[in-house]
Amino acid sequence: MSNTDNTQPATSTCSAGACGSCSSTSKTVDAPAMPGGQTYRIPTMDCSAEEAEIRRVLEPIAGITSLGFQLGARRLTISASAEVLPKALDAIRQAGFKPEPVDAAATAPAETPGDDHGHGIGAGAARLGLALLVAIAAEGVELVLPDTRANQGLGMVLAVVAIWLAGVETYTKGFAALRRFKLNINALMTVAVTGAFLIGQWPEAAMVMALYAIAELIEARSVDRARNAIKGLMELAPEEAAVQQPGGAWVTTPVASVTIDSIVRIRPGERVPLDGTVTKGNSAINQAPVTGESIPVEKAVGDPVFAGTINETGELEFRVTAAASNSTLARIIHAVEQAQGSRAPTQRFVDRFAAVYTPAVFVLAVAVAVLLPVLTDATWLQGIYKALVLLVIACPCALVISTPVTVVSALAAAARRGILIKGGTYLEDARNLKAVALDKTGTITEGKPKLVDQKAMRGDATAVRRLAASLAGRSDHPVSKAIAEGLNLEHDAVDKFSALAGRGVQGSIGGKTYVLGNHRLIEERGQCSAELEAELKRHEEQGRTVTLMADDQGVIALFAVADTIKPSSKAAVADLASLGVTPVMLTGDNEATAQSIAGQAGIKEARGNLLPEEKLKAVEELQKRFGLTGMTGDGINDAPALAKADIGIAMGAAGTDTAMEAADVVIMNDDLQRIPTVIRLSRKTHAVLWQNISFALGVKAVFFGLAVFGAATMWMAVFADMGASLLVVANGLRLLKANVEPARAAA
């Protein structure tokens, strides 16, 4: 059978064969229905163990061309012929699942977290509450009423009712698993509760099932906090937008119906409904939901706006540049969903361990039941009871749930800061980074030239600056634009304006001809001097581009332009060094510029004049020298080096598809300090992961000892297992609010 899936495998809180009854922590990417495929909703399928069980029963069926699992939506798309499809559905039903055609389920009410999750619950909180009351009544009959046949019969009936109310789904899937010789939590609970009932411990069997189901419900709702952390982002963008009609009227329209190039209006205090480019107005936009920036960003005509951000001060009109389904916010959610669908190294280890652990404990339980009466004076009923306690303790939920909840919480915490981490592997590996290669332009620097120095060589300084602003204002060259913006003066009329290819511009102002150009132009005009050459050398050593203004008598003024470093770059470099990570700058700019910018940022090693393939070789060399190496760039020009690095990090990627796809980690704004934040988050995540694993295994070890050598009961086993599960979930959820900002930022 060909198993070509349309989705990433969903992050699961259990491993196939280990735990068939725990809460999924991911909202997986919905896969479109495949051509010729039929989609079904399976209410009790929402974690990868159940996906694995369904795969296993469908594999022997010839004629199935592909499967598309959507665990978040509990949907499965089967592409198969009309003759094969009934066989597939029958196999799924025999495995204990109930597939429903999507159109039949489309009108079903919205699912409540924790209800109908297929975790042995089979009902909502009200039904489980009733089950607990009936189980308590069964306990009361045994403890209070006389030990007569009638009372025993009443107790058994109450126990059966309680078990049915709380555990009908557990029994359905448990027996299906046992028929396939599959040991998961449903099978363990089925055997344990049935065994307890058969040896006369029916009140305890009823109470165990009720407590187990209630604990699962609480656990599922706790885990939903991690699952919904990203889902909440989808609610940031409004569902309607004010769209301008051809006649000029404004009509409120669902965002899903708004087409590209439509004009949308947003008033102060409203959220931006779609991505677009401002066409009218000025305002400050709070972009924290997308980029993590805490300070509002000023927006004017020509600037981009993103869905989900908040318009704070003025009214804006913008032209839509992306459909609602392809907005930056939608792509952020999609990227995090994909990240949640990839398993972290620790999770893979835990899943492999749990797949061995559960059968091993089952064998141990059988050995205890058989050998304890033989080797000691314990009765056969006592041996069987201890074995049943071991089966309840054997539930690996606390162990396997510890990793995905922690990882998903960390991914959500990063996304809230404008950091997209493309999977648990990169989240865990970031803590081991030893070196980070940094591109210069747009990463360490602002990425655009600015006027940083100016000097009038002769004449009135104010008049000279106005002449330069007039000439520069007529040119489209980036250096000229930087001079005009930096001077910010009114322009005089320029006549006979012309561009001097590769040299500068020329024009007449007030009847007199002036030039504004580079060193080469002034040399050709024979207007250089030793004093001027020394001044030029001083600026060039600092990585600046110098433009000179001259008339027929000689040079009038000097303007130095440079790509300045970002305000956060120096602090970010210091943070990296404090974390034991060596920053290295790689740039295509000349060596003098590279060394100047590196010195300003506090970087000790910088390499200039590098072509893209040479950056790749530089990353390879850093990997040999230091070990795990990251590469930070714009995700386009640095693609070879980003691909070669152990972790590729794209900077300033808001609205850029290419950058999102090229890198393993995406920083949605231009703040280099997000890289130390990723490393700190990775280290904290690793610590929480192993806290949870150690705690879960420690609890198991203690209760194993109590069960075999002490007086552990099934009640204690349930409380220990589910208590441990809830505690590791709570510990993992702490990462949603973890403080992983650089120390100076936190202060």
From TrEMBL:
Chief localisation class: membrane
TM region(s), chain numbering: 153-171, 353-375, 387-413, 689-709, 715-736
Recorded family membership: Belongs to the cation transport ATPase (P-type) (TC 3.A.3) family. Type IB subfamily.
Superkingdom of the source species: Bacteria
Protein name: P-type Zn(2+) transporter
Catalytic activity line of the entry: Zn(2+)(in) + ATP + H2O = Zn(2+)(out) + ADP + phosphate + H(+)
Membrane topology (UniProt): Multi-pass membrane protein
One Pfam family named in its UniProt record: HMA
PANTHER family (UniProt xref): CADMIUM/ZINC-TRANSPORTING ATPASE HMA2-RELATED, CADMIUM_ZINC-TRANSPORTING ATPASE HMA4-RELATED
Keywords assigned by UniProt, alphabetized: ATP-binding, Cell membrane, Membrane, Metal-binding, Nucleotide-binding, Translocase, Transmembrane, Transmembrane helix
Annotated EC: 7.2.2.12
Keyword Disulfide bond assigned: no
Residues annotated as domain HMA: 36-100
Subcellular compartments: Cell membrane; Membrane
InterPro entries: 2Fe2S_fd_BS (IPR006058), ATPase_P-typ_cyto_dom_N (IPR023299), ATPase_P-typ_P_site (IPR018303), ATPase_P-typ_TM_dom_sf (IPR023298), ATPase_P-typ_transduc_dom_A_sf (IPR008250), ATPase_P-type_domA (IPR059000), Cation_Transport_ATPase_IB (IPR051014), HAD-like_sf (IPR036412)
